[in-house]
Amino acid sequence: MKISIEKRTLRTDGTRSLRLVYDYGYTTNTQGGRQNKRKRSYETLDLYVHDKPKTPTQRQHNKEHMLLAETIKSKRLVEWQSQKHGFEDRTKRSASFIDYFQRQVDIKEQTTSTSNHSIWLSAR
């Protein structure tokens, strides 16, 4: 598997969004031959870079966001390698679902209507 960073199409404000591309390689047909179809998946990062930076501030912004995208890419690659070799992710095992759900309820309280928030409270 290969993970790469892709700059998406130009937006109206002159920025491009970044996403990770997970390339799993070519698929095989029933006879074992390679098809010309590649299997890929994508993860949007909600990071944006200026297409043609004009100021030092825009250039610095691009450097920071590209560095952050590279860091996320490296983390995903380490996670994939760990899973491939059978290592256990202790952070996922020790996480509490109740704590996670409470954080979601708190977010819903601030961002949605009271009726929606009450549904989340009832579910908790």
TrEMBL record:
Organism: Photobacterium atrarenae
Lineage: Bacteria, Pseudomonadati, Pseudomonadota, Gammaproteobacteria, Vibrionales
The protein, known as: Arm DNA-binding domain-containing protein
InterPro entries noted in UniProt: Arm-DNA-bind_5
Domain Arm DNA-binding: 4-77
